[in-house]
Amino acid sequence: MAVCDANYLRLRKLLPSFGLDAQRRIGLPSGDSAAGALVELRVLEHFRYTSTLRISLCLAALGGAHYHSSHYHSSHYRPPVMLVRLYHDAATAEVISYQGRATTGFTLLLSDTMEFKPDEKEQVNQFLAEWLTLCLELGLGEPRQTAAGVA
Length: 151
Prior knowledge:
Layout: H1 2-14, E1 23-28, E2 37-46, E3 50-60, E4 66-68, E5 81-87, E6 92-98, E7 101-102, H2 120-138, E8 145-146, E9 149-150
Antiparallel strand pairs: 1-2, 2-3, 3-4, 3-5, 5-6, 6-7, 8-9
Helix pairs in contact: 1-2
């Protein structure tokens, strides 16, 4: 629970407004000048006591254009995409979907054939904590826009 509470505070710092369609892109440093990545935070729904955010990685393609992770196809790597539910009255944030799969079943092992481990939901929330910390400590903010695209 402490990880989820801390994630709520981190998200508050990164995205002060949780209003519908609020968004922010945070650049991540890269050692390769041709490559780059943006973490995109976007509010999908907002109610009095809850909000749902989509947090995804946008990867740079040739020519400087950024492609949303859902458009990036590779058999070797799928950039992280998660839905996070924020509970404003409890000041906590919980990952409800990771890579398009709901996390509600992570702790329920019904058979030996399930892909998820009992602590996977905790691991996904911990991954979110590390990702948000990276954005807070090393994030480059919204990149400048030029007439030719992203600077």
